[in-house]
Each structure stands twice: as C-alpha cells, then as structure tokens.
Predict the structure.
Amino acid sequence: MWPSISCSPTVTGANDNPSSAERNRADSSSFRITAIALRGFYEQVEQRIMLKLQGLDKSYDANTPVLHNIELTVARGEILCLLGPSGCGKTTLLRIVAGLEQPDQGTLTLNGQDLTSIPVHQRNFGLMFQEFALFPHRTVAENIAFGLRMAGATKVQIARRVEEVLKLVDLEGYGSRTIFALSGGERQRVALARSLAPNPRLLMLDEPLGSLDRRLRDELMTELRAILKEVGVTALYVTHDQQEAFALGDRVAVMQAGRIEQIGAPQQLYYKPANRFVARFLGFSNLLPIRTVEQPALLTTAGGKWHLPHLATAIIPDHEQQLLIRPDAVCALATVPFPPNTEPQTQLDTHEIVVTGVIAQLSFRGSYYRLGINLESSLDPQLLLSFDVPGALMPSLEHQETGVAPGQAIWLKLDPMAITLVNH
C-alpha cells in the first residue's frame, strides 16, 4: 500500500496516534473554539486597559519615518509581544513607552493618564535588555538590590525582596555569587530578578533571550512566561523570533516598516495571517496565486483546480489573494511511477487536493522530513513547495525500488483544512 494518513474525519481509540490531517482538523476546530473564547476575553480586556497608544508617529528626519500611526492597547497583566524584522521600529516603540524617546505626534496614556507628563524616573517601569547590563563588580544580591536602593527601600525591605525574587527565578542561595561565576542562563535570570524587584507597573523586555543558544532559549521561554504570569506583571516584549513570540505572548503584534500589520493571539496569527508579509515572516513559504475563481469555491492555482468550500466566504472578488498551504498539509504521498498494486485511484473525489511534482530538496529532521517539490504545472513549472512530512509516512517510501531522492517524481494529497487565504 502507498503510505497515507487519512484526510477524512475519523474516530480514534484511546491508544491511537492522531494523523497529521486529524491534527489539522483538530487544530482548525481548536482555532474556532479559541476565537469564540477570545471574543469574551477581549471584551473583558477592554474594561481593564492599562496602556493605550493612539496615532503614534516618529521620524528621525523627513526621509526616515520610523513609526507610522501606531494604535495599540495593553491590558493589565497581559504579555504583548512586538514581533518583526530588524529596523521595523519595535525597539523605538519600546523606547517611546519608556520615555527615552518622544513621538512626533500621537498620545500615550497609562490608566487614563497622559504618560508624556510623567517623568521617566517616576513611571515605575522595568527594563530588561539582551546584554543584561549587570554590574560585574557587584554580587548577584547587590545587582538585584540596585533598583530598590534607588527607590529608597530600607535594608530590611531590600533583603526580604531580594530573597523573594531569587526564589522566584530559581536562584536561591546565589545572592553572594559574583556575576563572573554565573552561566548565561543564570545571568539572564538575575537580570529578570533585578527588573522585577521594584514591582514595576510595566515590564519592557528587548530581545532578552537573543544572546543565548537555542537549547537554553527554548528552556527559558517557558520559564519566563511562567514567572511573568505568576507575578502578574504587564509586559511589552520585543523579539524578531516567531517561536519566542508565540511561546511568550498573550497577543502578538507583527510589525513592518513602522506599521503594525496584524495583532492578535498567536493562534489567530498562525491560522489566519492577514497578508503575505505576515505569512512569510511567520515562516510560511507555500503561497500560490489564485488564477481564477469558479463557484462554489473552485479555484484554479498553479497546482491545478482545487475545490475549497471552507474558503468560499473568505474570497473577495477582484481582490488579489493567495492560497497559503501550511507545511503540515501532507496526508498521503507516493513516488511516481507507483510500485506494483499501489497506485492510488485515478478518479479522485473533486474535494481532494492532489499535486504532483519533482523532489527538489529532501532532508531528515528527526521526527519529520523536510520535502521540497517543484510542481508539474504548465502555469508555473518552477514553483517550489515545502512540506514537513511526518516520519511515519516516509519509511515505506525508502524501501520502494524507485527510492526517494532529489529528481524523483512524487504524488501528494493535501488536507484542505491546512489551506487558507491571505491577502497580497
């Protein structure tokens, strides 16, 4: 039999492993449930807005606009991630909120009060940077106590608070150590403890995990969110890393060239990117132009004619849109020509999405294979699609006489629920 994962809804037993298609459908269902829940959540958020930015513009000269018409709200206790490439304006926006820069126009309010009228030192905001900015000649406890001393806390209050935050960041007993005796991850925790020690009303973090290796970053992403939620601090978090933003943020604002392209919960951005830029920046490379639209929801693409009824209401007539195919869309595949007695049906259901092409790239990634194929299409013969194929689909292919290697023709069936629309 040619390897496959069902693209149709199935009932699985308690010990069954869900297929990629089933996960896609579960993910889509989860997105709808999440969207419903979020509507109620955001109604409550509107009632507890802490920080509000309206119409913010910033330019360093007439030819260098940095921020344009920024509209943003942050609820009390929310973690909002500013996500975007270098130079998109996210750090400038952070500095304006901190009071280190002034906007050319627009308003900033904190709990309804004009923020620009509050001196920087009276805002009680915490800042944490990628470089940590720790004092090398002072101990861990002395670094953490710095902000508390500046705020006029007593020695007893300082000692008690230092002990509290050391416990919070899992560094109990580290107070007397020097900064040089700490690992990168431990220094990051000290910097976080120092930022949290004065109980800031707003904590701003600018690429705090950027200098750490991937393994340590993955560990600290989960820990950092847990700590911020335990404390209940409101946070603005700047990063260029999509995984970091998704793991940490309650909401994510994607920025490009000084503008906010899309803002929403991580699930909303992942399943419904607003446009081509957001999709590309989130790592989606499979974008197909729509050539023609026939009713009901029969779309002509570079991969052929696809029937996608779940997208019927999202299609905008005479508007340039593209199909986004998630990398986990593959639910069946086989090499071409097919081994004896394994050829799939030639008369396929019109609702099935089938593509054929030639393998251009193939690499083993542990639990999955990264598969790049050039579509066999007269419309766009050089179009490359990239898929993450579960390991469960690949072993049987490796034992076929034809093998799986670049240059091999291949047949793929895609889960329609892993395909969505994005605006150009």
Observations:
- The chain has a mean pLDDT of 81.
- The CA atoms of residues 134 and 327 lie 42 Å apart.
- DSSP finds ten helices and 20 strands in the chain.
- The two ends are 40 Å apart (CA to CA).
